[in-house]
Amino acid sequence: MPQLLRKTEGQWAISEEPKSLWQSEAEWQSGQALLVAVDSEPSVEWLAASSISVDFPALTDGRGLSLAVLLRTRLNYRGDLVATGNVHEDIAHFLARCGYNVIELPEHKDLNTALQWIAPHTGFYQASVDSPAPVFSRTSG
C-alpha cells in the first residue's frame, strides 16, 4: 500500500489518509480526482478536479515537475497536487519546490528519509512555486 506525505498549514507530515480513487483523463468527470501522465497537456477543465495526481513513470523523468509548475503558475490550480508512481525519497525536495503538496511513495520507500529530504536547505537563490520571490527581493536593506 502506498504511503503519503502531506503538506498541511505549511508543515510536511506522514498522512494516514486513504488513497483517492483516481480517474484517468478519458474517464474523468468534473469534481472527481484526476490521474494524468507526465506528458499530458494541462487543461483549464482540470481546475474542476477534486485533486490531480501526476503519475511518474521513472525517477529520471522530470516532466512531472514541469507539469506541476504549469498547473500551479499558469492555471493557478490550488487543489491537492499529488506525485505518484515511481517517486523516490531523494526527489521529495524538488517535488515540494515545484508545487506538489502530497507525495505518494511506494511501500518499500522510507517516509522518514523523504521527510528529511523535503527541506534540506534553509534558503534558496532561485524563485520556485513554493517560494516565488527571488532572493534579492526577500532581503531587507
What report would you give on this structure?
The chain has 4 helices and 7 strands, in the order βββββαβαβαα. With 141 residues, the protein is of the alpha/beta class. It has one domain. The protein has a 7-stranded mixed beta sheet with strand order 2-1-7-6-5-4-3. A hairpin with a 2-residue loop joins strand 1 and strand 2. The chain starts with a strand and ends with a helix. 26% of the residues are buried.
Write the layout of secondary structure elements.
Elements: E1 3-8, E2 11-15, E3 23-24, E4 33-37, E5 51-56, H1 63-74, E6 80-85, H2 92-97, E7 102-105, H3 111-118, H4 135-138
Parallel strand pairs: 3-4, 4-5, 5-6, 6-7
Antiparallel strand pairs: 1-2, 1-7
Short summary:
With 141 residues, this protein is of the alpha/beta class. It has helices at residues 63-74, 92-97, 111-118, 135-138, and strands spanning 3-8, 11-15, 23-24, 33-37, 51-56, 80-85, 102-105. 21% of the residues lie in helices and 24% in strands.
* Gap between N and C termini: 50 Å
SS-derived structural category: alpha/beta
What composes the largest sheet? 7 strands, mixed
Mass-distribution shape = globular
Please bin the fraction of helical residues: 10-25%
